[in-house]
Amino acid sequence: MALFKRKTVGKPGEWFYCLEHQTVEEGPECPGKDRFGPYASREEAAHAMETARERNLKWENDPRWHDATPAEDEEADEEEGR
Question: What number of helices (H) and strands (E) belong to the chain?
């Protein structure tokens, strides 16, 4: 066990969104595995989950990253009852 823990230090004015506490933090207060960021403003960090949702949708619908053929998509949809 370490006697001294090194606290992650951010630059002044960096904002993060903590996934565990669902709060906006100035400077990284929580471990990197539990946060999104850094963001340039508090408002930008507050919308981190919305931004992630939008990016995920964009990625899921990007044909360059879509491995399944249209026929495979239809079969998967039928199996899932869509």
Answer: 3, 3
Q: Which of 58, 13, 60, 53 is nearest to 37 (CA)?
A: 13
CA–CA dist 74, 8 (Å, integer):
47
Q: What is the phi/psi pair of residue 46, to 5°? A: -65, -25
CA–CA gap between residue 11 and residue 14 (Å, rounded)? 6
Q: pTM of the prediction?
A: 0.65
For residue 41, give every residue at least 6 positions away whose Cβ sits within 8 Å of its Cβ, in sequence order, or none. Answer: 15
**Measured distance CA(39)–CA(15) in Å, rounded:** 5
> pLDDT tens, 56-69?
999 988 888 766 66
